[in-house]
Amino acid sequence: MAAMNRRIVLAARPHGEPTPQDFRLEEVPIPTPGPGEVLLRTKWLSLDPYMRGRMSAAKSYAAPVEIGDPITAETVGEVVASNNPDYRVGDLLTAFAGWQEYFVTDGKGGRRVDPSEAPPSTALGILGMPGMTAYTGLLNIGQPKPGETVAVAAATGPVGSMVGQIARLKGARAVGIAGGPDKCRYLTEELGFDAAVDHRAPDFPEALAQACPKGIDVYFENVGGAVFDAVLPLLNDFARLPVCGLVSSYNATEVPPGPDQRPALLRMVLTKRLHIQGFIVWDFRAQAGDFHRDVSDWLKEGRLRYREDVVEGLEKAPEAFIGMLKGRNFGKLVVRVSP
Amino acid sequence: MAAMNRRIVLAARPHGEPTPQDFRLEEVPIPTPGPGEVLLRTKWLSLDPYMRGRMSAAKSYAAPVEIGDPITAETVGEVVASNNPDYRVGDLLTAFAGWQEYFVTDGKGGRRVDPSEAPPSTALGILGMPGMTAYTGLLNIGQPKPGETVAVAAATGPVGSMVGQIARLKGARAVGIAGGPDKCRYLTEELGFDAAVDHRAPDFPEALAQACPKGIDVYFENVGGAVFDAVLPLLNDFARLPVCGLVSSYNATEVPPGPDQRPALLRMVLTKRLHIQGFIVWDFRAQAGDFHRDVSDWLKEGRLRYREDVVEGLEKAPEAFIGMLKGRNFGKLVVRVSP
């Protein structure tokens, strides 16, 4: 065991796009577990777009990370010391340990990870928060019906790839939006999406319209911006829009110039009777059991696939995170912090 | 019986605010009912903001009125000739007769009006489409819970006044927004709203905040614009926004200048987990029976009040309609077309 705990803290609040200077790698003593606590050594660290929000001071559904504190993140850690009879050394456990190598917890708020069920990193992806975000948002708010069209952006990411695959399991048509031909090919050839559209192509709006000949009944919103612009005219009456993220605007530093498109959006809400609803995964925490049962079954039956983008070493987290906000990852981005 | 049918047709599509020149009063022969049909003489004509939308060619949930055709409107008419054994001369019937004195119908799509139950004009207000809009939108989408705060604009109008009163019947706090001190006084003193705020007052946003010390849980949206701006920062997490109208923008002729407030709205949808949903009353037509039963009961029990703004004579309809879009009516606007 190393004598020190390496961690990455917020050095400065990013202005717009985060830069490496907004993060600082530092070493602090490894904490000691108190009564009822365990010491976790981080194996897998999850990088997710929501972390950009936590780096800002703006009010949101969760408190911001303070300057000098480790960046918030869910992790899979291995128990390396235990003062809690419920956990033995070697057990794997999820925790919100943040961007660091060691973390003390009483285990509350985390869950056990069974490596015989699936690779432990999936507890941060398809079997974790991103998977449950897709599952709960799509089924509770999106409610796709057989034959309907479900569109999702960032479709090769952990949320988008699940949205499309679950939509197909429910009998709907899945249209994925992703950046570049490789990702689009992966969607149709590997994940079974009915169509994939490259949002970087100059004819993106027309291509999306062609990929949705019967319009869009569910648009799972996780990016906003130009993709939303292209989706809006294709929405059918009574379309549902679960909103779980707006990655395209996370780095915005000022209110965008006009025209003001809010009145036009509200007019469309009215005339098409749209249902737009924001959510975060914890709003549906009561469904965690259903989620784990269904997704585990689908995985075992080979009906769900996933892809991970693995970064080696905690020190690579800032660069990988900055790239993710630009769409550079291909699959669920995780950092292997220790072997 | 007059020899001719007077009607008001769309002379030109309004550009922005409608003007008297957009309408034309004309006389055509009274139509003759065919087999199974009845001839209705219009007694009451309803004027509602949605008609502004029908005067434009823009795509919406209903087809536009054609140039030269009578403006769309629901009416209460008296059967003056009948070739249908189900209807006798003297029966009262609702119909979408439009802005005219006579109309032939087979009765389908209309319903009988029982003058012993309530004054017949209420079939166009509290017991008609506006009342059912308030009832279905508030109860299905707004879902107010006891102790929550429900805010509604155009609160002395037929929809808004019902929204606030039903909210109170469900144990919620009702905050009405209206134009001018007379209307505000009416809301609190006559209708029992918990608070009323004048949107014309210079300190309107601050006054609204003071009237909603625990924030807003349901905002029943029927106006948009500056009222929406003042409501947004007061919305609580998980607030619901049924959207049934956007009167403030019905006369808009161009996309408003920037900044673009759409991204900020979507960010608020996400961080506050708002539920925004457009609807029209016909989406809930299956609940017409529940609506009539509940509202009739509440009326008989004296738990609901209403106010009508009666205009005398068909020829006054254009002027009254133009004024309504500026908030000049006080109560449900109806035209008495015949005695």
Automatic annotation (TrEMBL), chains A, B:
Superkingdom, taxonomy of origin: Bacteria
| Keywords attached to this entry | Oxidoreductase
SUPFAM superfamilies linked to this entry: GroES-like, NAD(P)-binding Rossmann-fold domains
Keyword match Repeat: no
Q: Which CDD domains match?
A: PGDH (cd05288)
What Pfam families does the database record attribute to this sequence?
ADH_N_2 (PF16884), ADH_zinc_N (PF00107)
- Could you tell me which InterPro entries the record lists for this protein? ADH-like_C (IPR013149), ADH_N_2 (IPR041694), ER (IPR020843), GroES-like_sf (IPR011032), MDR_fam (IPR045010), NAD(P)-bd_dom_sf (IPR036291)
Where the record annotates domain Enoyl reductase (ER), the positions are 18-335
Q: Does the keyword Hydrolase apply?
A: no
Instruction: Tell me which PANTHER family the record gives.
Output: PROSTAGLANDIN REDUCTASE, PROSTAGLANDIN REDUCTASE 1
Q: What is this protein called?
A: NADPH-dependent curcumin reductase CurA
